[in-house]
Amino acid sequence: MKTTQKTILAILVIAILVVGYLLFNKLSTGGPASNPAPSGQNPGTSTPVYKAPTVSKATADVLKQLSTSASQSITPQQIKDYSDKVAAVAVTSPVLDVTGCTATPNVLKYNDKTTVTVQNKDTVAHTLTYGPSDKVVTLYSAPAQSVKSVTLNILSGPGIYGYLCDKQGPAGMLLVVASQ
Questions:
Q1: Beta-sheet pairing, 91-92 with 107-111
Q2: Cα separation of 31 and 24, whole Å?
Q3: N or C: which end of the chain has fewer CB within 10 A?
């Protein structure tokens, strides 16, 4: 198996785990948790609370397809189909809002080596990470109550990346495309 294929397979496995967690959390709780404390905090503390992202129907359909194929061996055609579906629901936006550890948009189309404005309206900072637990990469650390134009830390180049917020749970996905 070529290195490129291994990389794609590793990215898909990570995405499958992220999506599976999202679906499990949504099914077991009936949806995003309500939070009477300030956005992103436990009541009476400064500890962030993970809230499952609210996703569009199109994104939910992609997640459903991905989770049903998680226990099967993945073919190159399934990788292509998945990539096409992620591309179809990805949103090009100049702003990535991570308030409450919930990414808006859920799937951001991002040109590598360009900037995106990351917004965090919470009173606590949030750190966005991706990668396996033994090689976690920080995409960006968003200070509390901040809006900042940044270049995200994408080490592997174009591809599909699922990412976590504050290591608590899935926050969203990036469809990274090569800058022209």
A1: parallel
A2: 10
A3: C
Q: What is the mean pLDDT of residues 117-139?
A: 90
What pLDDT shows up at residue 94? Answer: 92
Cα 161–144–126 angle (5° rounding)?
Answer: 25
CB 173 within 8 A of CB 102: no
Rounded Cα–Cα distance for residues 61 and 105 (Å):
16
Two structure tokens written together for 75 = 């073919």
How large is the angle between the packed helices 76-89 and 57-68, nearest 10 degrees? 160
Query: In this predicted model, what pLDDT tens digit does every residue of 70-105 receive, in sequence order?
Result: 556 778 888 888 889 899 999 999 999 999 998 999
Would you state the structure tokens that stand for residue 80, as one six-digit string? 């292509």
Task: Read off φ and ψ for residue 16, nearest 5 degrees.
Answer: -60, -45
CB of 18 closer than 8 Å to CB of 170: yes
Q: Average pLDDT over the chain, rounded to whole?
A: 74
Q: Which residues pair with 91 in a beta bridge?
A: 108
Closest CA to 104 of 172, 161, 58: 172
